[in-house]
Amino acid sequence: MERDVACPPEMELALPGQLCYNRPVWVPAVIDNAEQDEREASDLAYISRVLAGDRNAFAFLLRKYKMYVLKIVSRHVPYEDAEEVAHDAFIRVYESLAKFSASGGFRHWIAAIATRTCYDYWRRAYRSKEITMSSLGDAHQEWLEKAAADPSGGSIDDIGREVEAREILDWALARLSPEDRMVLELVYLEGLSVREVADLLGWSAANVKIRSFRSRRKLHKLLKDAGGK
């Protein structure tokens, strides 16, 4: 599959309007083992066909997992870029199929690739300075002042429930490194464990733990400094 070749209709990624940038999408953690085993067996059959040279078999996997990948991607990149990043993730999936180990499960393997594709998106954006460093408006300053005056408010866990708070968080995240940004979103906004984040990003657990602590301090400092202006 070439990056500059248009995808056939069955491989196009349509992003529904309800998938909003950087908003966690909570999925019930109820697993039917029998259904999961059947799903994995089906995936392995199609993976084998793709590896045997049947490119059309990949369209089945794309249709099956495109919304799953879009939900992951839409939590971490701007809405207008989510479809392109999801497409890049599927290209990586296709190109890496020969390296897939069935031990971890195909769904989880795809999630790791999608997460790392988002991370690489921010790395490219920071290198090319394509990130818009907008300033905070009066409404944002007012929200920060209220949050600072109320010791029970303004936590990372609560930010995102109000439009102004969400915009402030996006403003602050844009001023952090790609590494800090991804760790904050995965650990504090999505509630993943250190081990889960380490697995998704391919980092050590110690690295995730240290960076999550430091990135949270950096974010709080940004918010505090912004509120004091």
Q: Outline of this structure?
A:
This protein has 229 residues and is mainly α.
Layout of helices and strands, plus pairs?
Elements: H1 33-51, H2 57-74, H3 79-96, H4 106-128, H5 138-149, H6 163-173, H7 178-189, H8 194-201, H9 205-227
Helix pairs in contact: 1-2, 2-3, 2-4, 3-4, 5-6, 5-9, 7-9, 8-9
Would you mind describing this structure in some detail?
It is a single chain. Residues 1-12 and 14-34 have low confidence and may be disordered. The chain has two domains: 20-128, Orthogonal Bundle (Rna Polymerase Sigma Factor, Chain: A); 138-227, Winged helix-like DNA-binding domain superfamily/Winged helix DNA-binding domain (Arc Repressor Mutant, subunit A), CATH 1.10.10.10. The chain contains nine helices and no strands. The chain has helices at 33-51, 57-74, 79-96, 106-128, 138-149, 163-173, 178-189, 194-201, 205-227. It is mainly α and 229 residues long. 63% of the residues lie in helices and 0% in strands. Helix 1 (33-51) crosses helix 2. The longest helix has 23 residues, at 106-128.
Fill in the CATH topology of the largest domain. Answer: Rna Polymerase Sigma Factor, Chain: A
Strand content: under 5%
Shape: elongated
Span between termini: 51 Å
Helix and strand run? HHHHHHHHH
- CATH class wording of the largest domain: Mainly Alpha
Oligomer: single chain
Q: Give the CATH superfamily of the largest domain.
A: RNA polymerase sigma factor, region 2, helix turn helix motif
Which value, in Å, is the CA radius of gyration? 19 Å
SS content category: mainly alpha
CATH architecture of the largest domain, by name, is Orthogonal Bundle
As a percent range, the share of helical residues equals 55-70%
Number of domains: 2
Mean pLDDT: 76
- How many β-strands, per DSSP? 0
Total helical elements: 9
